[in-house]
């Protein structure tokens, strides 16, 4: 059965069809975009309402997606947000949208009760006392499984911020410091799913190229984080000195974690695969075991995502021979070495404007 993909790179938003039976990806729509739409958030109450931004500017956009007609129609835009936003995340009701700015080190809180986003407030990610002398780089907001809290990873201040999504101004209620030089980028809550409090948080650090594992304790007002482990994203840890981690994903069954290694000097770069382990005799603890690395057949895999059925990884490469590849997951969670489908870079980057390849790829319905 065919699946639909949303793919984006500077100046372009694509709708594509991935057909496993024929091992092909075909581009159905190439929608021009005035800037770099490097991330999308899909409304949890309306899967055809998408939000994005121009990472090089300060404009936030809402689009209506029609897969049957292969159309993306802009329905709203706002210039009120921070510049240099690089990630968006919804609350579970779809009424609040969080934008995190790497460029300004700020966190935009949007009201999205209508399709037109309205800026509620902008929060400074940097604490004036704790982070004095440092440059904030708010990189991602992650909603916890209960829907009560957002966690914001700040790459510049080496910190994690906990925000209360149930209060109107979504204030910061806790700041967690991670080892200096880590560069917190993206994270995932464990276990996968919604409703129950998470027991752990896996934090991918761009600068140290490590996954930090935290055990969580929910209180009446916030979440407490306790560091329990740190794991390199490379089989050869020395490679971490010449790289910058990109994305992290957790399998639906909670048994496997995947991260992307990028900005290396090797001809192609990799997806790292970890197995999640529960040590015997440990009270609720978790460990990660790095199983292997698989080539993305390209360079700079800034973002990848798991397919909806969990059988594949969709990977975007900003450079290299292949712009998009599909990596199949085996039953044991390992990745097949050869992609099952892909899009050559030359078929989507044709020498005009910003020539960077796909920065975002996601299966949509």
From TrEMBL:
Sample GO molecular function, one term: 6-phosphogluconolactonase activity
One Pfam family linked to the record: Lactonase
Listed SUPFAM superfamilies: C-terminal (heme d1) domain of cytochrome cd1-nitrite reductase
Coiled coil: none
Superkingdom field: Eukaryota
InterPro entries linked to this entry: Cycloisomerase_2, Haem_d1_sf, Lactonase_7-beta_prop, WD40/YVTN_repeat-like_dom_sf
Family membership noted in the UniProt record: Belongs to the cycloisomerase 2 family.
Protein name, per record: Isomerase YbhE
Organism: Trichoderma harzianum CBS 226.95
């Amino acid at each position: 059965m065919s699946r639909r993909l949303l793919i984006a790179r500077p100046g372009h938003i694509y709708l594509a069809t991935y057909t496993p039976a024929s091992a092909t990806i075909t581009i159905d729509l190439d929608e021009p975009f005035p800037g770099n739409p490097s991330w999308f958030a899909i409304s949890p109450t309306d899967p055809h309402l998408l939000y994005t931004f121009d990472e090089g500017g300060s404009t936030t956009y809402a689009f209506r997606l029609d897969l049957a007609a292969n159309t993306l129609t802009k329905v709203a835009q706002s210039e009120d947000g921070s510049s240099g936003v690089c990630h968006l995340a919804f609350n579970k009701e779809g009424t609040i949208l969080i934008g995190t700015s790497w460029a300004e080190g700020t966190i935009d809180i949007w009201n999205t009760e209508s399709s037109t986003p309205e800026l509620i407030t902008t929060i400074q990610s940097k604490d004036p006392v704790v982070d004095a002398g440092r440059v904030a780089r708010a990189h991602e907001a992650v909603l916890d499984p209960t829907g009560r809290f957002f966690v914001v990873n700040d790459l510049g201040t080496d910190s994690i911020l906990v925000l209360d999504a149930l209060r109107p101004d979504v204030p910061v209620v806790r700041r967690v410091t991670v080892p200096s030089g880590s560069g917190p980028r993206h994270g995932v809550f464990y276990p996968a799913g919604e409703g129950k409090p998470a027991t752990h948080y896996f934090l991918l650090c761009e600068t140290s190229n490590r996954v930090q594992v935290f055990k969580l304790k929910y209180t009446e007002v916030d979440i407490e984080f306790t560091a329990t482990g740190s794991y390199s994203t490379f089989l050869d840890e020395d490679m971490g000195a010449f790289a910058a981690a990109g994305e992290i994903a957790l399998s639906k069954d909670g048994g496997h974690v995947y991260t992307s290694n990028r900005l290396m000097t090797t001809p192609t770069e990799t997806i790292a695969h970890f197995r999640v382990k529960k040590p015997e005799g440990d009270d609720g603890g978790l460990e990660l075991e790095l199983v292997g690395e698989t080539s993305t057949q390209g360079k700079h895999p800034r973002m990848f995502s798991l397919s909806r059925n969990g059988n594949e990884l969709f990977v975007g490469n900003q450079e290299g021979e292949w712009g998009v590849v599909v990596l199949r997951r085996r039953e044991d969670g390992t990745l097949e070495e050869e992609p099952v489908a892909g899009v050559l870079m030359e078929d989507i980057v044709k020498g005009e404007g910003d020539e960077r390849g796909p920065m975002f790829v996601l299966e949509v319905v």
